[in-house]
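Posting for a labmate who doesn't have an account.
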Amino acid sequence: METLASASIARHVTVRITTRQPLEFIDLTGRLESLVAQAALRVGFMNVQSRHTTTAVIVNEHEPLLLDDFAALLERVSSGATSYRHDDASVRTVNVTPDERVNGHAHCRALLLGASVCLNVVDGRLELGRWQRVFLAELDGPREREISVMMVGEGGR
């Protein structure tokens, strides 16, 4: 009888992404699956976290019309054409930078979507449902973005 050698794994990776649109859903699933394979993670967890306040990490279906529906929903809930106190330079005094963007709508959208997801890894693969994919939701692009990925669990041959 053959026994499998296992070892504890704790690995962190920063994934850099260049977004191209003001609102964009970027499918990260393939990249994340590659990271699981590279780490030889057999069973454990992968936490995927945005490092920005105007992006989100979500799990949903990759179907083009549905992605259009998501964009339309976000526009209805937090329109880019609406006035936000965050964008009013005459009253805002906190966390203001020289290259400040008018992006109150993007912050509100991020609040609704969430900054991270924790995914199970089973038998060396992400434990996703049939239609589930992992997305970075760009809410204030185009920009350079970073995703922090932490993998913890057991590995082996």
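Reply:
Got it, the structure tokens are right above this. The two ends are 15 Å apart (CA to CA).
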